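Regression test attached.
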Amino acid sequence: MMQERLSSPTNTFSKLPAEKKAKIEAALLKEFADKGYQKASLNTVVGSLGIAKGSLYQYFANKESIFLYIFDLFTAKVKGMLQRSSGHELPQADLWQAVRRTMFAGIAFIDRYPDFYQLYLNVLFEHEVPQREELISRVRLFPMEYFGPLVALGQAQGRISRAVPLSMVVFLIDASLDRFLQGYARSYLDGGLGLATMGPSELVAEVDLLIKTLKNGLGSHEDQG
Amino acid sequence: MMQERLSSPTNTFSKLPAEKKAKIEAALLKEFADKGYQKASLNTVVGSLGIAKGSLYQYFANKESIFLYIFDLFTAKVKGMLQRSSGHELPQADLWQAVRRTMFAGIAFIDRYPDFYQLYLNVLFEHEVPQREELISRVRLFPMEYFGPLVALGQAQGRISRAVPLSMVVFLIDASLDRFLQGYARSYLDGGLGLATMGPSELVAEVDLLIKTLKNGLGSHEDQG
DNA sequence: CATCATTATGACCAGGTGGTCACAATAGCC
DNA sequence: GGCTATTGTGACCACCTGGTCATAATGATG
């Protein structure tokens, strides 16, 4: 009695040769990433694919379900990447190691799937994207559920300040992480760090610096390290 | 030989009675804030205003110039608010006081002009907004030019850690500030802080906590305060 | 009043959209 | 081959968009 999801393509689509399926998915992703949901044109997609519009509508019910299907591909990719990056983590792992790993996983994701990341940014802020809030929370829950327990553990062990509420710790980490990645992907958001033009090693140094700064704070301490 | 800006309305528009002008501006802002640039419909606007479409095109050259004009109103409002909030600052003012003031100014701005803030978020992330990067940098320069010198001063005086490059300090402050305000305006971005449902005094406490955390860091210190 | 400049109007246009459907092509099976 | 079920097709539809323009209304000036 499993309900078909609205984002499900028809089984005509699932029976398609893998290669053709991949091409269609890629073209759709590109269009949604480039133009956003509203301005994405299915006419353009079928044109560039060289298939008939009717075919597209034999694969999917409508534009919305097409979009949701593509976004599903994105969440699957994110999930996979996060699991791979945190999979070997020990139960009492260090929060900062986890943050570091997530950061690099994010950077790698943007490098490997720039269109998917663009799609995500579109959803974050575009109006009238179908089911926007639900889609966003689906993605944002991953890191939150991941960091929360680690912060609690760190506080219990005394390595994370107990003076700061857990929610604030998570907020700051999330904000820094997200904004760093946004700056990496869109140079005008990096606040002058120049992330877009950095080489890999510089990027690593910058990530480590950011984490160290999050840990130690911006104020000066008597014993400066 | 002053070149007319592309965003300039015709002088037909400037000669309009102030009341009518304000109504038109408000309706346009509302539409752009609600729908974003692309999906905003001028037909809807003239419909809700009860004026003819031709009139709108006697006030402005085209949709783009309409949008740029409305965005100009926004930057003017932001400029005014920032100047008012920082105007009385002493030359050797404290960075953290400045951050605090900017934070509250931002909150007040969102409360007072939610549509303008929405407009800004649209521009930040929507595709194919005319001159997007230029518009964004126009707004983002304000706080950056403001905080940069204060950070440098703080580092010279030894109150801000000299171990952290100025650009990183500015990045973290900017990211926290921006994200906090985004979370305040869009609850699904607040990372669980629950900003949207807070009363004013709670909000003040949260801002102070955030600033204190930025200063002291997330790690625990022997002398915990 | 008449004359002229300015402003308001809305029917109209070309272009694009998501979506449909009668039909053509193909594939599988006997 | 012939028959059926599935898949591919693109002309077509209603709808909406930003933008135009001939014309009407209004205001100013004498």
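Expected vs. actual: identical. The mean pLDDT of chain B is 90.
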